[in-house]
Records
---
Amino acid sequence: MAAKKRKILRGRAINIRPIPKNIPVVDLVDHYFQAYNAGRLREACQLFAGKMLKQDTTVGMSITGALTPAGLGGSCIVPLIEAGFVDWIVSTGANLYHDTHFAIGHTLHRGTPYTDDRLLRDQGIIRIYDILFKYEVLLTTDDFFRELFMLDEFQREMGTAELHYRLGKYIAGREKALGIRNRSILSAAWKCGVPIYTSSPGDSSIGMNIAEVALNGYDTRINTMLDVNETAAIVLDAKLRKGKSAALMFGGGSPKNFVLQTEPQIQEVLKINERGHDYFLQVTDARPDTGGLSGATPGEAVTWGKVDPDRLPDAVVAYLDTTVAMPVMTSYALARTKPRKLKRLYDRRGELIELLYTEHRKAKRRKKDKTKIT
């Protein structure tokens, strides 16, 4: 009985020492984020920096919510990309669109949510909760994207990773011309070979502008089925190389599921023998009892084959605002972990798809042979 009690009470004793002034983030997290969702955020930081960022782990990150208007693109996501801490990304189109405002020379401003929105409309000001900017920012960003979508290299069918890679080249060029260093996710991903996918490309201003040029006879076409197979191929390659796959999810929605569905695509649809992602880390303010986390709590994800059941003890869900968690996790990881060698998965997409196809054909032959025997 005493041994069991000692095992239960093996956690560090609650610290009641006065907090020092100007404490580093790592010390703040490790010693003062002790319980409730502060405790979960500590576990998230330690899982991310301590296990998920080993060189043999491929990290897929999803981002939802209006994160980039709040500056989290340049302040957090770009440093994570450049440090090799994120290998592939699924984002809403809105996050990529609003992030581009900064890259082409615009500013967004801190404000208040407690204002008369009718007055803002009259003055041509857009509000995203407590972020304010001129309506002209949208119009000039639309013009920038439409000009690109009319170029010859965009007159073809492509997945969203290719679309974003091509856009990133031009955004990097605009940043250079304006003297802006690595302010956007798309330009950083282009430089680092990190593929970025959007699971619902029509659900954003980028998609709306593609629709506009299509209406005027241009041939830019997005095929998201290419994305389904490419993302599955990335995960399968990580596992076949005796490495691990990690799902890092900020928020929920379609991008979260798109990262997680890679394993059901491999196992359920393509019939390839696999067990699920090795690491599951989610920051969310949704609740499972309302359906907001349907199929995406770590335990439920195991039942879908999304998470390896043997790795479930490593799963962490922190129920708090991403705008609080992401800066803390980014600072903690950069302080705790040396930069990793870039995997440059975008450059390997053809090779990865061939691997996926080969393994799928093997699985089909095994199933056919088994049917013959029985």
Note: Residues 25-373 form a domain with the Deoxyhypusine Synthase fold (CATH 3.40.910.10).
---
Amino acid sequence: MQNPVKIDKGKLLLAEPFMLDPNFRRAVIFLCDHQNEGSMGFILNKPLKIKVDELIGDFPEFDSRVYFGGPVATDTIHYLHQLGDLIEDSMPVGSNVYWGGNYEKLKFLIASGVVKPGTVKFFAGYSGWSSGQLDEEMQIGSWISANMDPNYLFAVRSKELWAKVLEIKGGHFSVLASIPEHISWN
């Protein structure tokens, strides 16, 4: 399956419909870095059954689930947000989407009520590829590339995200969106 969209930081990667790896089945990954040395991103649609303030002991009360970002370094927490310059050292990774930044400032802004749930998304671990690995996986059709919209990160329900992005791509991708997750359901 050819992907006309160039893969780069700020793009989405959607697992092909029949990917068997349970880490990536129907995954939508937001690519935050793509260089010759490797690539990394976060799975946007795999919520865990724990809130960030339950996972991190010194975190202020905050009604925000943690998501499974990927199988690499699952003992680390990362975050994507729309807060831009409010959080120093955050890196722009897409249109109105930022990665990381000053963690203590984030906690302060949450405790002060300035930052509300729905503007920050937390991830345990990340998805990573070594040099050339993602390009190879794209060539064999493991991933479908798509453009990112901040609404995918903050407004579309996780369970619906994979199919929604494919539908918006249109053409034969909208047909793929309707393939049941378990072929026996067909």
Note: The helical segments are 52-55, 103-111, 133-139, 150-154, 158-169, 172-177.
